[in-house]
Amino acid sequence: MNDNEAQVFGGKKSAGTRKALRFFAERRIRTHFVDFAERGPSLGELRRFAQKFGVAALVDRSSFRFAELGLGAARLSDERWLERVVEEPLLLRAPLVRYGRELSIGADEAAWRTWVGR
Questions:
Q1: 5-10 β-sheet, strand order
Q2: Planar angle of CA 112, 31, 61, nearest 5 degrees
């Protein structure tokens, strides 16, 4: 992946993911889409997001999968949460977006605009 390409992790059904893909497509910025239903980000990739935002910001506590797995009372270490979301990418907030060295979680159009300058 090069610096003129956005990497978008998310689900096809996620409104935020669709918004991110549309945002970059409208600006003719190539995107590499990784669908959570097929595979999630690597542990190394997730560590980048965790270093910037914290592990708690990665986990979508309102997701269907979070409730389905009964994680409401779970008290896991940050490292265990990272391992868990690698195993279960549907637990992640969507979208996770990387553009060069820039990162965002969720549909953060304001951040994306600052990255691309338009």
A1: 30-35, 5-10, 96-99, 102-105
A2: 65
Evaluate whether 103 touches 97 at the Cβ level (below 8 Å).
yes
Among the listed residues 79, 93, 117, 116, the one whose alpha carbon sits nearest the alpha carbon of residue 41 = 93
Q: Are 72 and 91 in contact (CB under 8 A)?
A: no
The domains located in the chain, with CATH, are: 5-116 (3.40.30.10)
Task: Write the pLDDT tens digit of every residue in 67-115.
Answer: 999 998 888 999 999 999 999 999 999 999 999 999 999 999 999 999 9
